[in-house]
Amino acid sequence: EAIAAFIQVIDSDPQNSDAWAARGAVYIEVQLPFKAFADCQRADELRPQDARILVLKGIALADRAAFCQSMLAGARSRVADEGFAQAVDALDEAIRLKPEHAPSYLARGSVYATMNDLASALTDHAQALRLAPNDAACFASRGEVYWRFSDYTAAIADFDRAIALDPGQYRIYMLRAWAHAELNDLENANRDIETATHLGSNDIRLHWKLGGFFREIGNDPVRARLAYDTTRKLQPKIPTVYMLHHGDDVFAHLDKGLQLDPVCIPLLFERGQKSLLADNYGQAITDANRLVKLEPTLAGGWYTRGYANYETDRLKEALSDLDRA
């Protein structure tokens, strides 16, 4: 509904930078990083030197870079490295323009964490906490940094502080539950999950995270599937919710998402990869063709097509694609 409303605003006033930025923020929330970056870039063009827009642009750049990296199972990618560097540049500029804005430091610190630069991440979070010592978001964000680097005890301490400051945020309970589970403290993990579910029962982001928790940590495929099904029921028009699956109906979900948005890059990549695993090389090539046309800098698209070409004895095409990747 928010996206549809912003489309109407942009159609009637294409110079409205606030509408472009707001729609970009929604795309960030529903994990559509390429669309998010396009909107934030347009907002920046319409209103340059705006710290708030630069923060959104930095986050979108980092999310896009992280997706590029995930396409190669986390391997280093030149495009991803450049994306992270561009994200830091945008956030540097936001901080230069508005040096007392704590969210800018949180965003840059989170990007540094994604780049595995713990020292810089903690330095930025310390600055954010100096500017906003009673902001739950600062402690929650630093807790995520500690969690990313497997310091679960420090993460829980920060999540405790965040909850004490703002006990109504389900997301922080979900993060703390994950940290408790990593320490094999399932009693406290389940207690936090119950609280999170009570607070955020109608928010797709909660059920999205619950599905991942039960699949990756809880080893509970039944509850993972229930969480993902709930996400789709709550927001059936968001294409990326159809990436969430845990069962035999993977392709039915991916097809449904691509019916909603035939050029959704994450969904095209996911279906291409699943098609490779299912030996459906024709579908993999079809999806990879779309990917490399939409985003020719994505190594994963070229790799998918190259692998499928190799398996179907198109060796010349395979070598060309793999060289490109």
General description of the model:
The chain has 325 residues and is mainly α. The chain contains 18 helices and no strands. It has helices at 2-12, 17-29, 33-46, 51-70, 78-97, 102-114, 118-131, 136-148, 152-165, 170-182, 186-199, 204-216, 221-234, 250-260, 265-277, 281-294, 299-311, 315-324. α8 runs antiparallel to α9 and α10 packs parallel to α12 (204-216). It is globular and about 60 Å long.
* Strand residue content: under 5%
How far apart lie the N and C ends?
Answer: 37 Å
Q: Describe the largest sheet.
A: none
Mean pLDDT: 92
The beta-strand count equals 0
As residue ranges, the low-confidence spans are: none
Quaternary state, please? Answer: single chain
Radius of gyration: 20 Å
Helix content: over 70%
Key attributes of the depicted protein:
mainly alpha; single chain; 18 helices; globular; 325 residues
Describe the protein's topology:
Elements (H helix, E strand, L loop, with lengths): L1 H11 L4 H13 L3 H14 L4 H20 L7 H20 L4 H13 L3 H14 L4 H13 L3 H14 L4 H13 L3 H14 L4 H13 L4 H14 L15 H11 L4 H13 L3 H14 L4 H13 L3 H10 L1
Give a short overview:
This protein has 325 residues and is mainly α. It contains 18 helices and no strands.
